[in-house]
Amino acid sequence: MKALAIAAVNVRRTLRERTSLFFIVLFPMLLILVLGMAFGGTFEPRVGIAAPAREPLAQELVERLRAADGIDVRVHEREDEVVAAVERGDLEAGLVVPGGYDAAVTGQGRAIVRYVVRPGIQGQQVGSVVTAVVDEEAGRLRAARVASAETGLPFDVALGRVDGVAASAPTVTVAVRTAGEADFPENLGRFDLMASSQLLLFIFLTSLTGASALIETRRLGVTRRMLATPVRAGTVVLGEALGRFAVAVLQGVIIMSGAALVFGVDWGAPLPAVLLMVAFALLASGAGLLMGAVARTSEQAVAVGVLLGMAFGALGGAMMPLELFSRTMRAVAHLTPHAWAVDGYAELVRRGGGLLDVLPQIGVLIAGAAALLALASWRLHRVLAN
Amino acid sequence: MAVRMDVTPALRCRGLRRRYGDLIAVDGVSFEIALGETYGLLGPNGAGKTTVISMVAGVLRADAGEVSVAGQPMTPRTPAVKARIGYVPQDVALYPDLSGRENLRFFARLYGLSRAEARSRVAEVLETIGLAERARDPVGEYSGGMKRRLNIGVGLLHQPRLLILDEPTVGVDPQSRNAILASVEALATGGMAVLYTTHYMEEAQRLCDRVGVIDNGRLVAEGTVRELTALVGEHDRVVLAADGDLPAAAEKLRTVAGVREVSVGAGRLELLCGDGRAALPEILACLASAGVAVRSVELREPDLEAVFLHLTGKSLRD
């Protein structure tokens, strides 16, 4: 009961401080929002098209591009608008259909459409979609021109015949078969990926920097005074650890429920998702307690805590997906608790896993928590004994 | 001050010793305090008072020696003994971001009071220390004196039999200081044993039934104020500012009954007497007959400052 009293005071003091409320709740939620808006969700490249408005065949090309999968077509009036938008990054690519396109394709001339893109792999990927549509349209127009030349029919009539025949003509299509699972499934919500990363990053950061409260309690002489009451040193250590743990779990619950309610984040199966968070919170509170036992001043605890929290977050895949790491770096990442928890949430959120699938991750986190709490308790006992 | 000597002392310390590296902070300190007795540990800063108190309160392990409270030995395995002690540290040890009431409730729980007991005791203590009106305010907004009073209040929550106060008036304004001293006097009258450390000899003289003089970690003398002053053979000093033939007057003064010693300075005579007040009329008459005009008279009775100076060769404020 006395340990609970110490823990309760810890929680009350943390929640009463406005700056800690900002960093515990508001800041992580804000980052989930910003990062989700910037990078989350299924991404469809934007392709700007400038085509002569009064040329029917040019407009037909635009419509065929609109119907193509995988690109989001935006129509512009002039070529320079398209080029400027690509330069600014407002469009991933642009296509310029020149004036006189209809005359060129129906007569003996040659129409050249220009594809505008910034250097990089994304332009090439979008280019393959655009080229496929333009090639198909060019084949249709060539067939109509041949038919018109051979039969003497007007071009538009020949084009109609070609379209009629095309429907029943034999075709060769490429059938796509997926093997394995996508790293980032298409149905992944805009905020799903970032939410678990921010959850882990901020629970760990808050726990490490929260060590300053423990140091402050010692500096104020309150810890020493607690030891003058009928309370064993072990009870004081347990109370402080419970307090840190309660704050970490509370933060986790707020972020998880807040992100689910406000941003519709899918955390996967609820029970394993919560257990994974609790295991990570336990480890983070152990790390915080150790920091509180080792650091000499509050300022030192905050500075080192922020540094370690950010470094572990970056290395452990809480800032960039582990799938983008090299094989070696991915192995190194698993020296951090974040990587294990990130793996766990990937299993739950992206692959629809259950409790059994994340038991190894939960086990590793609890083992790490036990080691850190034991080390921190030993160290705090020594500090308090002196 | 009422002194009730019980068979079992409220506190017994035997051979307390504590070393910090090469420094021996406390070296074989032993003393006892009876219920209702106020015992003062008097010594300059760094003498070892706080170290002794920390060992008695159980927040610091002694390298050697024993502490027993009401006959029960204090060891790391017997934290329940601490329930008999109220400890008031030298520095204000409270959460500044919690209110006075929240701080008291927190420590009440640590002292093992139930929720209901805690609620009623906290209310009583707030009244006792005069902070009931400000109970809801964060301690960080309290004045220095209010913080000190709350600091003492924490030590009273569980109605201990022994109250340990470590220099509770340091940095306190005169008004709060008087209030604190009056509270301690009232507690002792109520039967509580009090261990009080200070380097203000006036406080020790006002409050303490017995005083232990501590220097360099050793208890160099112990007794009532009168016993201590008698122990070192101190006398009253009469200091006179005067005009006239002072060396001749000094010769005459040496024949006055009760005057032990006379020294002459520039415009000044200093006399050492067994009882200065009793001898003063005859001294003044002697000076008048010698044609010396007295401008001022000062009577200095022996005090603990003099005792400390005599015992250690140092001032309490060194």
UniProtKB/TrEMBL annotation, chain B:
Gene3D superfamilies registered for this protein in UniProt: P-loop containing nucleotide triphosphate hydrolases (3.40.50.300)
UniProt keyword Repeat present: no
One Pfam family here: DrrA1-3_C
GO molecular function, one term: ATP binding
SMART domains: AAA (SM00382)
InterPro entries linked to this entry: AAA+_ATPase, ABC_transporter-like_ATP-bd, ABC_transporter-like_CS, DrrA1/2-like_C, P-loop_NTPase
Signal peptide positions (record): none
UniProtKB keywords: ATP-binding, Nucleotide-binding, Transport
Ranges for domain ABC transporter: 11-241
Protein name listed in UniProt: ABC transporter ATP-binding protein
Source species of the chain: Phytohabitans aurantiacus
Lineage: Bacteria, Bacillati, Actinomycetota, Actinomycetes, Micromonosporales
